[in-house]
Design brief:
The complex is a heterodimer. Chain A is α/β, with parallel strands linked by helices. Chain A folds into 2 domains: 82 residues, Methionine synthase domain (Methyltransferase, Methionine Synthase (B12-binding Domains), Chain A, domain 1); 124 residues, Cobalamin-binding domain (Rossmann fold), CATH 3.40.50. Chain A has 9 helices and 5 strands, in the order ααααβαβαβαβαβα. In chain A, strands 2-1-3-4-5 form a 5-stranded parallel sheet, with helices on both faces. In chain A, α5 links the parallel β1 and β2. In chain A, α2 packs parallel to α4 and α4 packs across α5. Chain A starts with a helix and ends with a helix. In chain B, 48% of the residues lie in helices and 11% in strands. In chain B, β7, α11 and β8 form a beta-alpha-beta unit. Chain B has a single domain, classed as TIM Barrel (Alpha-Beta Barrel), CATH 3.20.20. An 8-stranded parallel sheet of chain B has the order 1-10-9-8-7-6-5-2, sandwiched between helices. In chain B, strands 3-4 form a two-stranded antiparallel sheet. Chain B is an alpha/beta fold. Chain B is built from 15 helices and 10 strands. The chains are: A alpha/beta, B alpha/beta.
């Protein structure tokens, strides 16, 4: 896809009118562009520009929320095409805010960014008990588990979830953690595989872990 | 020259708030909660009762002065008192969990109903009555700090954070509609807290630096904050979390007497930019220092802020409930060393 084409997806992500995205995706499907190309080069390519702009404070959370809303609409239109061509995701990512914590804006940003980066995301919502994480891991066999917490009290619950996953499973998925009160030191202490400061860095972290996994 | 200002906590705080006559040392105060589990155990007054009973609220709040040695008492621990009065279902939490609004009942500005008897609502009455108790018991000696939520924070509670932030782009008129209606709650509650005995009211309005741009603050909130300050009349301190280094001048323009700020904002830079046109209250880091650090870490940060010229020393935000008392006391100890030669 040419730069001007990626730019048109970028503009559609920034547009407050959902119709712009709908029209664009339909136009590209109509032109016979493969759905994987529309997804990877158009939507994901433009979303990574949004991610970088967010990381460098050129845009703020409202713009990211808008881009994510528009991106989801684009993927929705693309889904039947993708299923027809059996396009596989980069990996499966299960995420939830741990028990006792009902905050979800940070987690939702991660969901949007991970979806935008081509992962299949299963969002368990907020206040998720550790047994629910274990149940979903057994059923879905994800590549990654993401744990989120906003409160200092509930970040301690994260340690319990990590412990339970490691105890219950001989080959657990990679566990990544994030949330306002967390630090890399804390993530190391509870034996998480990675910590990310924000949603953009979460995608970078998971991509890196995936590459490392591939090398093994 | 001997300093004429006698070391009474209230005078020390007020001179810091208005940026003059510094006395022999900086004031240590808390615009937001400094309650911890340890403090609850010492006073035998616990959450959630302390959010709902004025006598218990006053008793637990006073521990900040009695036990920790702060110059202020601030009785509104949670950010949800107004939310319940406006119709949100609030889970009042427990000793290790702050309250949280479970429902966000308004999706349109015209769905916002501000009750005629707003100040009679139990969750607001408790704060007003606690302030009256504190005024009777401490009003001559200790600075009494009130706290209200600004219309931005109230919009989060009533509409949901994500929805409200998205409306900034998709429906800016709706955002303005929410702010215009909800500012009346902020003004009404603030005025009544001043009348009940507060020396100053903190306006907590979480348009945080990490969520929205300075331009969004300028376009949507600045005129509302200017009006709020005009109409409240009495002294106000703005509390906005996050890195707000890029919008400090806007807070000065809004007409607040003080700004309660985070460690992410460098104190030296803030003092230079604000140029004594507004007092700076802060900015000891919660996560790595007051909660996760040692008394030595607290001491180092406190001395940095004092030497930078901050007007009142304070934790950057409501401290995590597991914060050790020793770290909070270390803040007061650092202040007792007085000003360094460099900051004179």
């Amino acid at each position: 896809m040419k730069k001007e084409e990626i730019d048109s997806f970028y503009r559609a992500l920034r547009d407050t009118n959902l119709v712009t995205m709908e029209t664009l995706v339909k136009e590209y499907i109509g032109k016979g562009i493969t759905p994987i190309s529309i997804l990877n080069e158009g939507l994901i390519g433009a979303m990574s520009v949004i991610g970088q702009e967010f990381k460098t404070s050129q845009i703020w959370v409202p713009e990211v929320l808008l881009a994510a809303r528009n991106m989801n609409r684009g993927i929705e239109i693309l889904k039947p095409e993708l299923q027809r061509e059996k396009v596989s995701s980069k990996g499966k990512f299960v995420i939830g805010t741990v028990k006792g914590d009902i905050h979800d804006i940070g987690k939702n940003l991660v969901v949007m960014m991970m979806t935008g980066a081509g992962y299949e995301v299963i969002d368990l919502g907020t206040d998720v008990p550790k047994d629910r994480f274990l149940e979903v891991i057994s059923k879905e066999q994800p590549d990654f588990i993401g744990l989120s917490a906003l409160l200092t009290t509930t970040m301690l619950e994260m340690g319990e979830v990590v412990k339970a996953i490691r105890q219950a499973l001989p080959h657990p998925p990679r566990i990544v953690v994030g949330g306002a009160p967390l630090t890399q030191t804390f993530a190391d202490e509870i034996r998480a595989d990675g910590y990310a400061e924000d949603a953009v860095r979460a995608v970078e972290l998971v991509n890196r872990l995936l590459t490392e996994e591939g090398r093994k | 020259m001997k300093n004429p200002l006698s070391p009474i906590p209230k005078r020390r705080f007020l001179s810091g708030l208005f940026g003059r006559r510094r006395g022999n040392r900086i004031s240590v105060a808390n615009p937001t909660s400094i309650v911890s589990v340890e403090l609850m155990e010492k006073t035998r007054v616990y959450f959630p009762e302390a959010h709902l009973d004025p006598v218990k609220m006053a008793e637990l709040a006073a521990a900040g002065y009695e036990i920790l040695g702060f110059d202020s008492i601030m009785p509104e621990f949670s950010v949800q008192q107004e939310a319940e009065a406006l119709g949100c279902v609030v889970d009042w939490g427990n000793p290790t969990m702050m309250p949280d609004a479970k429902t966000h009942p308004a999706k349109e500005a015209d769905q916002l109903t501000i009750p005629d008897n707003l100040l009679e609502k139990p969750s607001l009455q408790v704060v007003l009555r606690a302030l009256e108790i504190l005024r009777r018991n401490y009003g001559d000696q200790v600075a009494l700090i009130g706290k209200v939520m600004g219309p931005w924070t109230l919009s989060y509670h009533l509409a949901g954070v994500q929805e409200f932030l998205l409306w900034i782009l998709t429906d800016p008129d709706k955002v303005r509609g929410f702010l215009n209606r909800l500012k009346e709650v902020t003004i009404t509650f603030a005025k009544s807290q001043l009348q009940a005995g507060a020396d100053v009211v903190v306006v907590a309005d979480h348009a945080t630096g990490d969520l929205i741009s300075p331009k969004t603050y300028q376009d949507f909130l600045l005129p509302v904050h200017q009006e709020i300050n005009q109409r409240i009349g009495g002294p106000t301190i703005l509390h906005i979390c996050g890195n707000c280094s890029d919008r400090l001048r806007l807070f000065v323009e809004a007409g607040f007497d003080g700004y309660h700020f985070e460690w992410q904002v460098d104190a030296k830079m803030a003092v230079r930019v604000v140029n004594h046109e507004m007092s700076l209250v802060g900015n000891i880091a919660n996560k790595n220092v007051l909660f996760g650090g040692t008394p030595e870490d607290v001491y180092k940060q406190a001395r940095y802020s004092i030497e930078a010229g901050v007007d009142i020393l304070a934790p950057e935000c409501a401290v995590p409930l597991q914060t050790p008392i020793a770290n909070l006391k270390a803040l007061v100890e650092a202040a007792k060393e007085g000003y360094s030669k460099m900051s004179c």
